[in-house]
Structure formats: structure tokens, C-alpha cells
Amino acid sequence: MNCKATRELLPAHLDQELSVAETIAIEQHLQGCPECQRELAEQGELKNAIRKHATYHAAPADLEARIRAALPQPTPPKRAQWWTSNLRWLNVGAVFATMFALAWSTILYLSVPSADELLADEVISGHVRSLMVNHIADVPSSDQHTVKPWFNGKLDFSPTVTDFTAEGFPLVGGRLDYLDRQPVAALVYRHRLHLINVYQWPAASEQTSAVRTLSRQGYHLVHWVSNGMVHWVVSDLDPRDLISLVRMLQAQGTQPGVSPSGSG
Q1: 241 part of a folded domain
Q2: What is the pTM of this model?
Q3: Where would you tag: which of 2, 7, 10, 229 has the fewest CB atoms within 10 A of its CB?
Q4: Are residues 72 and 162 in the same domain?
Q5: Predicted local confidence at residue 254, as pLDDT
């Protein structure tokens, strides 16, 4: 797939409207095309800005009274002129048009994904991309003392790296990735035949958040914020095993409680 075809499909790619074959073709092209990567990032920022700053209109407080007033009145005497009936139907049409507009606005509002849902899609794409192009790790090693120093000079923060081989989650390695419009650290773990990506990057504020879980597109995700760092964990691993890894990761610092928020 060339740049022209890729850029024509980027809006649909951002909205996850493409087929599996088209998605794979675009992801493969993006891997080797910095210009298309920048175009994708710019379109993603524009989409987020529209979602964040779009103006939404609430229904007027007197809408119910206006609708009731516009509803058909009792049938007038036969001697009433013909235009009375026509006027009544015009009022009914106006009411239904107003109700349709309000319903459509509500549907559009509810269909706008949240910031967490948009970021979850990015995390899943990064995970799938690492598996699809066999780019699991830039520094393949189970030695945390090899993986952690590798990030020096490549990121403006130092990720926490721990090997959990004894607990059944051996460290596979680390790599650089790009999420939430910034470079991030990706640590890769393995549990049986399942690979797990653990993403870390600095939080925008010192505020912490409890652990939340999401399930999307057949993948399970866990994310939280603690000690000034954002954490996202993604895999097709059984959620119970994934939470076991999360608890070990949390044990390296402050431990917020695990409180699943349901599926997304």
C-alpha cells in the first residue's frame, strides 16, 4: 500500500471501520513511513480536539410544555374551515421533527468514545503491531539490569523494570513505542504462550487513579496511575492471570486497589 492510498484510508482506520486485511496493510505501511505516521498522529489529535471541544446543546427546560401544546387537539366541529386541520398536521410535523433532532443529537453524543477508550484502542494497536511485524523487543533480554539501562538517553524518564520469572512471568525485553502523542517504554513479559505488553510513561499530574480494566477486540487491558507514572497492560491472557502480574507491578510502588470497571 502506497502513501496516497494509506492517507485516504486513515480517517476510517482511526474510526476502526476497515477490514482486517486493510488494517494490516496500513499498519505495515505505517511501520516504514514517518510521513504517514505524522499524518495519522495529526488526524488523531484533530479527532480528540473535536471530541473535547465540540459544543453540545441541552434540551430547553420548556420543551415538554411546547410539545404538549403542539400535540393534536380534539377534532373541531365539521363547520371549521379546512385550513384548521392542515395547520394541526403542520404542528404535529414540527413536533416530530424536533423530537427526531433531539434523538439524533443524543445518539451522536453517546457514540463519542471517552478518552480512556481512545487510548485503549492505541494500546491495542501497539500490542498487535508488535506481534504482527515481529517487533517484540528492541533489547531482547530477561535481565532487568540490561533492559533498564538500555532506555537511558532514549526517554526523558526511567521506567521501572523487574523480572518475574520466579512468579511465572519472565521478562522478554523492552522497546520504544509511541502512545498518547509521546514516546513510551514498552516492557514485554511472557506467561506460558501469551505475550504481555506493559507500557509506562510520565503522568500529566501527580494525581493517582485506581486500577481499571477494559475488554476490547478480544484483548484485556488494565491501567492505572501511580507515583507520577501512567501504566497500561494489554494481552489476550486470562484476566485473572493478568491481574496477578498487575499486582506484582504495583508492589514495586504504591498499591492502589484493584476495582474492575467492566468491559468497554
Answers
A1: yes
A2: 0.56
A3: 2
A4: no
A5: 42
